[in-house]
Design a protein that fits this description.
Blueprint lengths: L14 H4 L2 E11 L4 E13 L3 E10 L4 E10 L4 E5 L3 E10 L2 E12 L2 E13 L5 E9 L2 E12 L16
Length: 170
């Protein structure tokens, strides 16, 4: 896909507007064979200073592991962004057109006691009602390892969400 092909699609995704304030996400990672490997939630606090979007992401995985990742994204022009975060090798690059955003980067991914250097090809699509869908292909040496799928919603929109992996009330 070419992100510029989405130029005329609506609703228009402006990262700095969508992510400013509080956002919540739920996601899964499944491997290339379709097996579900991880489930997680993410609380995100975003700030925009007119040039830079900072995203503080607090992950909670279904196995109890917690992780914080802080992204710093610089808006280069109407469409292009660059970003850095711990674990990102070099600079992440992306572009937004219409309701779509494509983000590519190399990442040192912790897997158990090991670290794998992988490539992310991340696609986000803003949907009517304010839901942002994210599908990211994870590859190493050009071979697909798996897919991350996330749904983002803004907490400011008064959407009711369940706390991360709570047990159902008895």
């Amino acid at each position: 896909m070419n992100v510029a092909d989405f130029e005329k699609t609506e609703p228009r995704l402006r990262l700095e507007e969508f992510f400013e304030g509080r956002t919540y996400a739920v996601g899964v990672f499944h491997d290339r064979f379709g097996s579900l490997r991880r489930q997680f939630t993410v609380d995100i606090e975003g700030t925009w200073d007119g040039e830079t979007l900072t995203l503080v992401e607090d992950f909670v995985y279904s196995d109890g592991e917690e992780e914080r990742r802080i992204w710093t994204l610089k808006k280069l022009d109407e469409h292009r962004y660059e970003g850095v975060a711990p674990g990102v090798v070099g600079i992440a690059t992306g572009a937004a057109y219409g309701n779509a955003f494509n983000w590519r980067y190399t990442f040192d991914l912790k897997v158990g006691e090991d670290t794998l250097r992988v490539n992310f090809d991340d696609w986000m699509f803003l949907q009517p009602g304010g839901v942002l869908l994210n599908i990211a292909k994870v590859k190493k040496f050009g071979f697909e390892l798996g897919t991350v799928t996330l749904s983002f919603i803004r907490k400011d929109d008064q959407v009711s969400v369940v706390e991360p992996f709570q047990q159902a009330a008895e």
